[in-house]
Amino acid sequence: MEHDAGVNKLQLHLGASDYVSSILPLASEQMSPLLSNEREGSEDIQQEPNKEFPKLLHYASYLIHLAVFGILGVLTRYTLDKLFGPSVGHVTSDKTILYLDLPSNMVGSFLMGWFGVVFKEDISNVSEYLAIALTTGYLGSLTTFSGWNQKMLELSVNGNWLFSILGFLIGLFLVAFSIIFGIETAKGCRWLLRRLNMMASESETGRCKIKAKVEEGGFKHRLAVIVMLLLILGLLWGVSGVLMIAEFKNGENSYLWIACIVGPLGVWIRWFLARLNGHGLGSTGLFNWIPFGTLIANISAACIMAALAATKRFVNTRDCDIIVTGIQFGLLGCLSTVSTFIAEFNAMRESMHPWRAYVYTIITICTSFFLGILVYCVPIWRMDEL
Question: Comparing C-alpha atoms, which of 10, 2, 47 is closest to residue 28?
Fold first, then answer.
């Protein structure tokens, strides 16, 4: 009953705002209470212009929020890779189906259930910028589809095709379960907070009060937040630049600082591509249930990462390895996303047409893997034959 109520409430919201979901095509269908964070954020500027806040500052605020939280996502992904990888936890490895980015993808998918599904509206009532920054910026950068696809390509290039197939199947199962577990635990937390009277009422009056309190600061409050985040972004970029120069010749983590510098660009591109979600193909909106923005971001990032991996293998110098790895980990890791992908998968699975979730998944994985074989595996096989 709680789920049905949430569905009806979301349908009313979609109808009232004339919003087309990028996850599911029809507002009349039963759908998961998840709105497309990326497209919603990129279109908020046009849908709800603020007379006191210039449109240019709206764009700047979104971009700065995304950049800061994107860098934080890169740093978190690096930490989880090291924590569970061969150097510390010995759980993940480049040579097994438990690839290095699996913990990051699972954690990001779990948190997407919290911040992108259950508590998204509550966060949006406080700040739309924060909601987009957490989901699109932080969780989108914490998770990476291109890294997942590349690890499976590296297994297949050595003839471990079974490991590659199992890596995709087990990886998909784990991230799908992670978001379900995140949604269920978040619902439990919400219920507990209600029981303890620690959460604001979900009535329209309660939401209006929250909105009013947030907007009391007006232009000055938002401008102060932008300035503060801009200083943080400058600090992050400055420290990353200094550490990159200091460690480039001798340090083993210099690629991380390159990743922090170029990572925000990947987040911004993915955010703008999200405008394609929900529109479909052509003027008739053919296949508008496919989120083409996310699809293009993931496939393009996977292909570019495969091309760079092949380049790194052919050039085979330390400087090239550092620069290419930094671009792969930062730019392409942030351009692709598992958290949004699995949120869309979960929403389709709970809709009236659950088969769409599996078609969307097959298109994403098979296309990325096939193109990766052409770009990465085939040149290496030819090189080995010479």
Answer: 10
